[in-house]
Amino acid sequence: MTLYHSPTSPYVRKVMVLAHEAGLLDRIALVPASGTPLDSGTVPLAANPLGKVPVLTRPDGGALYDSRVICRYLDALAGDRFYPQGARQWDCITLEATADGMLDAALEMMYESRLRAEQIRSAEIVEGQWSKISRSIAVLEDRWMAYLAGPLCMGQMALGCALAYIDFRLGARDWRNAAPVLAAWQGGFAARDSMTATTPPG
Ligand SMILES: N[C@@H](CCC(=O)N[C@@H](CS)C(=O)NCC(=O)O)C(=O)O
Q1: Is the CB of 51 under 6 A from ligand 1?
Q2: Mutate to test the pocket of ligand 1, among 3, 5, 53 (most ligand atoms within 8 A of CB)
Q3: Is-above-0.90 flag for pTM?
């Protein structure tokens, strides 16, 4: 399989963390690719018309995107270990959706500050996106810590990647004071081999 890969993309990181945890790394060749909404760059548009990474090409030649689809596919290949069935099933995929939504908001903030000309940037849009992230962090702190203490699942991997991306790109926003229990969880998660092996280059 070929994974179109950018070392700074948190969505690619989700896939790589799962590949580490599931023992699939030796079955995946990495091809560098990146783009933005303004310039699709080296993203393979024939494989993903949305112009985003990650994209995974399967052994039969078909292409998969986005990260949630790729992660489900890889987990199925590895024996259905990280998308639980039963009581934890819906919490796992809701947690993954929450983490991905936090990432979508963080990426919008980055695009607003990096891609839009200064005179037409909107501080309101930036703060509106940040409020999505801070509300999610508050809910995670209040309601999700028992789930996060349970067995490793894809939702936890997505959350670990999302919080790490917020630290990487939005480090000036101090979320830890408002969410000390979640911060402690993140500290432990960040020490996993799958996370240290996928740290984005500074
Ligand atoms: N929902 C997608 C989001 C992927 C995404 O936004 N990737 C970014 C890189 S971090 C990208 O390729 N952006 C280019 C663009 O938006 O045109 C997923 O989970 O894979």
Answers
A1: yes
A2: 53
A3: yes
